[in-house]
Amino acid sequence: MTKADLIEKLAEKAPQLSRRQAELVVNTIFDSIRDSLKRGEKTEIRGFGSFRLRHRQTKEGRNPKTGEAVSVPEKRMPFFKAGKEIKELLNPEEKAAL
Fold first, then answer.
1. DSSP 91
2. Second label for 14, Cα 20 to 30 Å away, from 21, 51, 64, 98?
3. What's the CA angle centered on 30, arms 24 and 31, to 5 degrees?
């Protein structure tokens, strides 16, 4: 599913919203998640999942072409963790086993 598909789905489910308004809603949600990650904050959407940052430490890597050792700098990476409801939806047999 693409961002355009989400906008279309929202416009269908909420007929009082124009397609332009639906696009604004979707963009606002994505912008809010992106901005909270940029500030180093976690965003949690109950029943769906959470977005957070993971810190990768500086490490030694290798240039695949020359085999020369290179330093890979520390970086922050976005990480999504699916919520319980999504996990159960995708793996119904695990819920039945409990």
1. -
2. 51
3. 80
